[in-house]
Amino acid sequence: MSFFTRFRFETAAAWLTAAAVGAVLLFLLFSVWPLLVSGEILGTLRGGWRPFAAEPSYGIGPMVLVSLLMAGGAVLLAFPLAVGVAMFIHGTGSRRLRGPVQALVAFLTGVPTVVYGFVAVILLVPMMRHLDAGTTGYGLLPAILTLALLILPTMILVLDARLGRQDRLWMQTGLALGMSPGQTLQHVLLPQARGGLVTAMVLGLNRALGDTLVALMVAGNAARLPEGFLDSVRSLTAHIALVLATDTFSPEYRSVAAAALVLFLLTSGLTLGIRYLASSGESA
Fold first, then answer.
1. pTM of the full predicted structure?
2. Could you read off the pLDDT of 25-46 as tens digits, one per residue?
3. Which of 196, 115, 114, 203 has the alpha carbon at shortest distance from 160?
4. Measured over all CA atoms, what is the biggest interatomic distance in the chain, rounded to whole angstroms?
5. Alpha-carbon gap, residue 273 to 141, rounded angstroms
6. d(Cα 179, Cα 181) in Å, to the nearest integer?
7. Domain boundaries in the chain?
8. pLDDT digits 0-9 by tens, 154-179
9. How confident is the model at residue 284 (pLDDT cuts 50, 70, 90)?
10. E strands of the chain, at which residues?
11. Fewer C-beta neighbours within 10 Å, C or N terminus of the chain?
12. What pLDDT, in 10s, does the model give residues 188-215?
């Protein structure tokens, strides 16, 4: 394949991908348009979900907050662990264990999400129930812990790939200067791998925001604001899966469309924002 042919193919693929993403956004905007025109969008974003009340409400406010809490909590737990495991693989750990640890991480990335949810239901939920006998065990905390375990292997692989490209040159330079492998990783490799750190965080955050099965199986699916970490909650993805209706004119459908649009904008905005901060930090 010649250079010009490959260039045309890559350009066409890029435009096709951009068009597909734009089409999804336009469809979501079209579905939410009645809420935008009537001015009900703010009430939908801020209100609660009470479809069977005397005065029905189809708000998604609690689900938006819960999604941010679940994804943010999972990243806060998983990211330091991912950095630690990546450092273990690239210098601070035993040479005999680096290969098995890498193989285990690669294996965990291929485990289906439903397996993580099943294990959490069997092992983690009863533990949460013992912590507070007044709860069912399904709630925000077990969902955060399960999501942290789910996104951890992906974040480790991203950091492993980034550090692996710089490992040999910088490690040899650090050793020549009298630095230990741990010092070289902490003061040289990790600052140089800032882009990999940001990419790992973005991928972990977006996967946690977009996961459906863990939220459905572990969080409890109560459409309310949590008062504690053991309260049952519902995320945006679980809300879409549970409430999805075929009647495109119903208020339930418009609420689901608004939830999908918010989820789309959240993942896109967080990705662009974190990447902008990373690029600003590199240029400073």
1. 0.85
2. 999 999 898 888 888 888 888 8
3. 196
4. 75
5. 27
6. 7
7. 60-283
8. 999 888 887 776 656 666 666 666 66
9. very low
10. 49-50, 57-58
11. C
12. 677 676 777 888 888 899 999 989 999 9
First to last CA, the chain: 41
DSSP state of 189: I
Q: How many residues does the chain have?
A: 284
Torsion angles phi and psi, residue 178, rounded to 5: 90, 15
Residue type, 60: I
User: Phi-psi category of 246—alpha, beta or left, where left has phi over 0 and alpha has psi -120 to 50?
Assistant: alpha
**Rounded (10°) CA dihedral 103, 109, 113, 115:** 0
d(CA 72, CA 79): 10
pLDDT-based confidence at residue 8 (cuts at 50, 70, 90) = confident
Please, which residues have CB within 8 angstroms of residue 277's CB and are 6 or more apart in sequence?
198
In the numeric block, the tokens 């990790």 are attached to 190
Q: What is the mean pLDDT of residues 136-152?
A: 93
Beta bridge partners of 50: 57
Q: Tell me how far apart the alpha carbons of residues 2 and 172 are, in angstroms, rounded to a whole number.
A: 39
Average pLDDT over residues 207-232: 90
C-alpha gyration radius of the chain: 22
SS3 category, 34: helix
